[in-house]
Design a protein that fits this description.
Two copies of one chain form a homodimer. Helices cover 74% and strands 0% of the residues of chain A. Chain A is an all-alpha fold and 210 residues long. Chain A has one domain: Tetracycline Repressor, domain 2 (Orthogonal Bundle), CATH 1.10.357. In chain A, helix 4 packs parallel to helix 8. Chain A starts with 7 loop residues before the first helix and ends in a 6-residue tail after the last helix. The structure holds a DNA duplex (30 and 30 nucleotides).
DNA sequence: ACTTGATTCATACGACTGTTTGAATTATAC
DNA sequence: GTATAATTCAAACAGTCGTATGAATCAAGT
């Protein structure tokens, strides 16, 4: 099973991931994190320099791998057809991230990443541009090719919508639970990916209004 | 022009609206608010009892009117056709909220509402259920009728998606600006409503996968 | 065995947090 | 004009915040 992390840095990362996901970035203190990780308060600054440094380390720890899979699936989609099928591009974009939810740790990561997107926009943009520019570039290009006929500006808007909906659906689905009177709960990653790909691809293909 | 608010309570509401929108709920202190409003710190507790009470008052101040317009437009859509057209229902759902952005104050309100949705899910759900149950009920019913053939659970998911994308697009579009290298900026409310209705309606109608 | 560098520790800094109090002030009613 | 209520005020409460420091402990290499 999930063996307890051994090193101090890993214990901090695991605890922070969980707490950030649950309570948000701004509502989680470094003291809560070090308490949950059973390490000394100063360890965070020794290993990560600052709270922002900790967030960056958290994102790099798992997003690097997810983005690798994203590009791998995008390669496959682009090899299979010219231009690539929109559904396949969308699947490559959302699937590997949603699939993080297959493990409890990954679920925490996904929710905390969504928190960073909305609570700390500036930091998130900066990290994406610094560490994953290729992923951004490749998907912009792929969406453009997969949805021919759309003006460039419209493509960017629809990618923006897709990112937003992905982040929204990674966060706690308390809204969904509340307004379905508890009947509908978060489903498994495969089902969520299916729903997202279906919804987003259809939205992406929506006709332009006059 | 925008005359400066006269009463203490209004000055607090205006300042809080702006600061919450700009920096988020958790990153805005009551002292920042009272300083911006040029009122005494204790005035917040005198008029609103607590920070959560202030948030609730902020939401009620403008959301009540927006929801009234929503239901008005929904009435029109349901009178025009049976079942109502999905595009019209969607327009009634997103339009009045996006239109808040026509005034600077409304822009602040919309962005702060989106913040509450993501930063304080529990509080938002509670307020909606306490103050606007009819709006929730009516739109659930309308979406069900406008998209016949979809299972009830799927309807709830797609409403959930629609709410999420609406909130995402109300927040600062820093992502969009950054990844378009500044070329694409937030457009006017009418254009955003058009884009949202088009994208969301198409997504809502997406075929069910096996 | 001893040095060197990495890591952990308790402790403190100054600033900021939401909330409360009771007195001072202002407005309203008679 | 005076009593009554509504509002504003300065000041403080008891905590928490992110960050920093320097000594203590640990591990590795020679």
């Amino acid at each position: 099973m999930n063996q307890v992390a051994t090193t101090t840095a890993e214990r901090i990362l695991d605890a922070a991931e969980h707490l950030f996901a649950e309570n948000g970035i701004g509502n989680t203190s470094l003291r809560q994190i070090t308490a949950a990780a059973s390490v000394n308060l100063a360890a965070i600054h020794y290993h990560f320099r600052s709270k922002d440094g900790l967030i960056e380390a958290l994102l790099l720890r798992r997003l690097a791998e997810a983005n690798r899979v994203r590009l791998e699936q995008l390669d496959a989609a682009e090899s299979a057809a010219h231009p690539p099928a929109l559904e396949k591009v969308m699947h490559a974009f959302v699937g590997p991230v949603v699939d993080l939810g297959k493990s409890p740790r990954g679920t925490h990561f996904a929710r905390m990443m969504a928190r960073v997107h909305t609570e700390r926009e500036g930091l998130m943009v900066e990290i994406l541009q610094r560490h994953f520019p290729e992923m951004v570039r490749r998907f912009k290009q792929a969406f453009r090719r997969a949805a021919p006929g759309l003006p460039p500006e419209e493509i960017l808007w629809r990618i923006h919508f897709s990112v937003g909906l992905l982040m929204w659906s990674l966060q706690s689905s308390r809204h969904l639970e509340a307004f379905s009177d508890g009947r509908v709960r978060q489903s498994n990653p495969a089902a969520l990916t299916r729903r997202l790909v279906s919804f987003l691809s259809a939205g992406f293909r929506a006709p332009l209004e006059s």
